Amino acid sequence: xxxxxxxxxxxxxxxxxxxxxxxxxxxxxxxxxxxxxxxxxxxxxxxxxxxxxxxxxxxxxxxxxxxxxxxxxxxxxxxxxxxxxxxxxxxxxxxxxxxxxxxxxxxxxxxxxxxxxxxxxxxxxxxxxxxxxxxxxxxxxxxxxxxxxxxxxxxxxxxxxxxxxxxxxxxxxxxxxxxxxxx
Length: 183
Fold this sequence. Notes:
By secondary structure, this protein is mainly alpha-helical.
């Protein structure tokens, strides 16, 4: 065997190993892509399912938060309506447009609603709202029982404190509102 034959044999062996290497490299590359695609597909599916579950949880939290906020607003509206009604009664009585017997009936109605609203507020309102409401209601009750005199200026100040506490709780605006009128 000559050197030329040895080199041909050696070249053929390297060529066949190189060709096989190329085939093995190509097959392993293809198989790697298939596995990567499957793993990525599985992970994508798993992450999609987790994302959908998290979205459902967030939707439930959002719905509960909105319902709670709506309950607060409805309760606060009820408080304002009850206070507005009793203040209208005081104004009508003070200006002699409402007979005493009608005023007494409205005061009894106010007292019933006041107790109910207090329970509603106790379930939903923070202490700042409760304190402002207590201060206003105590003053209104003192007027009802004849132990204090009705003064619109004092009522307005207490009502604004309560309204500002409500506004802060609801998140409408943290800046307090003030009375800028002349009465």
